[in-house]
Amino acid sequence: MQKKLVQSSLAISAAAALGLSGALVASPAMADNAPQKLDLQSEAHVQKALSGVEGVNAYGTEGGELSIGVAKKTDEIKKLEEKYQNIKVTEGIKELKPYAKNDLVGGAGYLVKAGESGGACSTGFSGWDGDGKPVVLTAGHCSKIINEQTNEFEGDTIVDQTEKPSISQANGGEGFQASGNGVIGKWGFHKFGGDLLEGAESDKWPAPSASDIDFAVINVDESKYNVKNGITDWTTADSDDLAKSTTEITEVGEHKAGAISKSGRTTGKTEGEVLPRSEYDFDYQNVGGRWVHGFGVTAPIDKPFSQPGDSGGGVYQGSTAVGVISGGGDLDANTSFTWVADLDHSLEQSGTDFNLEKPGEETPEAPAAPKAEDQTIEPKGQVKGKAAAGAEVKVDWKQAAGAQAGSSADAQAATEGSETVKADEDGNFSLEGPEAEGKYAYTATAIVDGQESKTTEFDVTVEKDESETPAPVEREISVDPKEIAASDFVKEDKGVTITVKGFDEGEKVTLEVANGPEGVEGIELDETANENGAAAFSIYGTSAENPEAYLGKYDVEVTGANDTEDESALTGSFEVVADEDGSGGGSGGDDGNADGGSGDGNGDGGSDLPRTGAELTGLAAGAGLLLVGGTAVVLTMRRKNSN
């Protein structure tokens, strides 16, 4: 069945455009609540299926499936999709507008009446004002009847019709022939420069002002013309429809040094160079006896940037509108010169609210492209990336040229594919990678509210992990020192360090003083195992005035939150003893680690641990407080999770 494109641009619904009626047709054998299969045997069934469904901008049938294109899924579309198993809905398919010869774009010619005579100018840029009304921007002097001898204003011109493109001078004709599409509209804001610069003595001329602009707005009669974003390149002038081939304009901005383009009814599309400030350091130019704010553009004398009649024509760089043609002449024997009224300045000074998209109908901004680095995974491992939170991410892949797939038929068939996944609230997305080893070229595109992002390319290498799994690390505990003089125990930079290893990364590790002097039993302290499965605790006394209060043996037990029934607590002990000579001092730690290390020589020594922590209850009346604290030390091994 031949696919058809549905256009609802003529103020009629999609259903009316199709001329559809009737109800959805399905097999009566299907359960009421189960997804049904839509009968697509004839065009009539398709028409019945789409009857009354709003927002359908395209449709087609192939292989027993009805494909529907919509700008955005409505609740009605979602229900239809849920009810029928052979309906595929694609978002982001916009309503298309038909080309029309009354589409008004930038760079077109238009006529003006000045009493019994008249002239022609060029449109700059088409768009909408703040109220959504269509407007055209052009040069202010096109709105004035100017005495050729005195440069005085003698009134305002009247906006007439567009000029017929096929006979415009830009297309090799003589021009000045009306298109027959009717009067464009009426002048809105319009201004040409400031006070007249009279007399030969320029030092007596009025000083230029920021409001000296050559700028005008035409309020378009929307019953006769459609304004359309873009500026014509004049390649379709023979068809009298300049809107068929345009450069899209996406923003209004400040001009930059370098290449610049213009479109107008006399010379069509032309190229030039912005005159650098180092060569022409002026913001104002005398145009027709009045100051005009703007900038200069040069071009070869045999290929001028503008000529009479191009006034008001749109000047742009890339997709940015930067000005309208104000005036021109020859800079020297080899160079033509054009003065451009800068658009950003003119809009600001005139207070004009100009929009390149109709307010309320702006296309949602495209989402940012997904981020994904080249990555290596094991067969069927997770391919990962980031995108906008909640975005649908379409991921495609195929094996890189020259790469070898696996030998099995399944592996051969899995060398390319496509999958759409959803990014979580943090923007993370993942999907299962290929099973066959090799290198794959991946692309990822984010879709938000029917708008697609740019595509991100990255490579995924699939290879088996041939490295041996390390044996589980045995849990160990180190107490340093095992015996300490009371006078050292009450010093903040000394005390006892208890280091453990063999736990899981991030596991909660708990130390408990199981036995000790009165008032100590039951004290607990928690730490978190570091990335190497290690944790450390430090204990010291705070009552330096009464160190003898800490004398005695302390038994500690260390357990992990992930312990199984088969795992026993790590145990250790230390003893606080009386000073022999009254000067303090203690013995080395167990396992020969007198330097306070963890016992494997791969980490920072326990003596380097800061003595920090929370104060707990005292040992006995007047005995002071026992301060317990902990921090992780860097080790190289951790135990394998027995769970």
Automatic annotation (TrEMBL):
Q: Please note every region of biased composition (Gly residues).
A: 583-606
Query: InterPro entries attached here?
Result: LPXTG_anchor (IPR019931), Peptidase_S1_PA (IPR009003), Peptidase_S1_PA_chymotrypsin (IPR043504)
PROSITE patterns, from UniProt? GRAM_POS_ANCHORING
**Extent of Low complexity compositional bias:** 404-414
**Region of interest called Disordered, as start-end residue ranges on this chain:** 350-385, 404-428, 577-614
Domain of life, per UniProt, equals Bacteria
Signal sequence, start to end: 1-31
What is the protein named?
A: LPXTG-motif cell wall anchor domain-containing protein
Organism field: Brevibacterium siliguriense
